[in-house]
Task: structure prediction
Amino acid sequence: MDISQISKNYQIRKITEENIQEVLELCLGNPLYYKHCPPMVTYESLCRDLRNLPPRKTLEDKFYIGFYDEEKLVAVMDLILGYPNDQTIFIGFFMMNKKYQGKGIGSQIIKEVLECFMSNYKYARLGYVLGNKESEGFWLKNQFRPTGVVVKEEAYSIVVVERKLEE
Result:
């Protein structure tokens, strides 16, 4: 897949260890996220995330990408194709640069990503941390709906939400 086709408004670049410092700075600018979803992000944890996969998935299914405006990292996304089933794309992580939040840019990025994949997939799925009202509001605004599944982790619970993709 040609990742440059994911967005008409931003340059898409694969996130690698070479540009992980940019991602760390973006993440550190969003401390509220890590208050709900500890522990705080580190360079090492982001490097692990580059290779972290769900069961039965390979690195060919994973797109850890940055959305750039010129040289400025606007957002980062970890996307898994065909998970948890062949008809679904899974957004494992999405975070906006704090300076770009509250302007509709995040919703625009999500819209572009979903439009890019809707011809090959029927659903998009993700999870947000229960109690994180900022995340909950964002995903509900972007037409994701609770599936009824709540996954209990050691320090928090994850609400699984899904959206039907329609052409």
Summary: The chain has one domain: 3-119. The CA atoms of residues 32 and 132 lie 8 Å apart.
